[in-house]
Structure prediction request, 328 residues.
Amino acid sequence: MTPSLSVNLNIEKAQHLTNSDILATRALFYRYGSWLLGYIVEIVKDHEVAEQYLADIFKEVPYKLNELNSTGSDSWKQLRMLAQARLKTAYNRNLSGKELFSERLKFDGVVSGLTIEQQIVFCGVYYYQKSTAILAHELNLTDAEVKKILREAFIMMKNG
Amino acid sequence: MDKRIHDYIESGILEAFVTGATSANEEREVLQMKKQFPEVEQALNELEIDMEKLAMRMASPPPPQLWDRIESEINGLTVTSKHLPQHPGDESQRSSQHNHKPDSGFIEVEGSSTHMRIHKVWRWVFAAVFILGKVFLGFAIYYYLENRQAKENIQELKLEIRQLKSNR
Prediction:
């Protein structure tokens, strides 16, 4: 999408914004802004670039409030998905399982307590938004095995 | 707990769900199970809390002025859009008022920036204007002093004439 087209689309959408949309967006920013910035910094490894991504994401949030505030939805998960969509082209390269082996070291501070296999699976789903099915294919494992590894990773991080 | 539910929770599908790594079918299945079984709902809630704790551990506070910047950009866009015509009739009225062609393909956008960028050639123009300004100022001062001197001379001459007249 060209920048000018993007601006036009935003102008079209902006007509439907109300003050309460802005207030709801501000509430989300103050609740999740620091979490999302920390998450983006982990991926892009540059604070200024991460701040720009954060600003861009929150400029889109007023138009996605229905999804973010719908009953039963996990706002934090939805915001991460928005961030992933933004980062996809620049940072979320289509890494294979083997490439993830070295990429996981980028997130060493967060996942250092996990086994290598758990690190690959956790970083694959959490930072690179890979489905367990894709990871299973790349790692020559079954989908059920990947899900088990992911669960173990969660337990390790919770207890670690 | 029902063994089937226990195995379902132990399978890791809930972890995949909270990280967004499930397929659309699995997602529907998890949401269905969440509705049907309180144990699944509780396990999901706990996982969401775990995810939030992880996020809190990695949190990095944004600079204080960042929200103001975002808000002004959102508001700027909204305010601009309020000036867009709502009805086809408004368009013709607006175009006649502002002498703006309706099908020119441009939208007036009010930039929030207080700065402007101009071509580098203007720096020579500004330098020339500055130098000319100084030259004119020099001339002005010179002619002012000349004029004052001339006036003083005239006064002196008048005085001399008066003295000569009175001596006669």
User: Anything to note?
Assistant: The longest helix of chain A spans residues 19-44. Chain A touches chain B through 59 residues (CB under 8 Å).
